[in-house]
Amino acid sequence: MWCIVKMIKINRLKLKYCPLVCFLIMVLFGFNTLCYGQMGFGLRVGGNISRANGNAFGANRMGYQLGADLIFGLNSKMDIQFEPSYNLTRIRVNDNTASLSGGLSKGTRSLKYLNTPAYLKVNFTRKFSILGGLDLNMLLNDDTYKLNDGTPAFNSRTRIGYALGIDLGALYFRYRQFKKNNKIVDNWDAHIDQYQLGFKMRLF
Length: 204
Known about the structure:
elongated; alpha+beta; 1 helix
């Protein structure tokens, strides 16, 4: 019996860290391309509009992001691109759960994230590219907001979402989504949708 319980715990542990392992493999693969292609570096800045889905949340709110581009060329048409960024995500909480012990009072919450998307980038021209990949998110201020019962309102554990994007010259557009961002009652599976628009500059 003890062996069965131990096996179940091991399998759960493997499932828990499987997305992180997959992400690290992509990172290692990206750095490995240094041996075969060119490396590029750039900077980016922009604004975002975010909305959390779920009964506890309301209208869109604006934030911003600051970050860098690490570009590893595979060939003339494809790159692997990492975009480590500081991201201020603002979401609106309505009063639907304000009276519940596991609820949250009404107001706008500012969530500070360190996120690192890993993209496969397809270059159609020198100024037009599309991107898609995984997005690793870590909440930096998880102890700022509390539920009515005193427990943290937002998940501190690193999450993996996905992201899609378009580069058009010095402009960039990104769509990001990541799930299970909060611990508010009945909103465990709520996710955040974010739209980003900004400027980028490649330094080399």
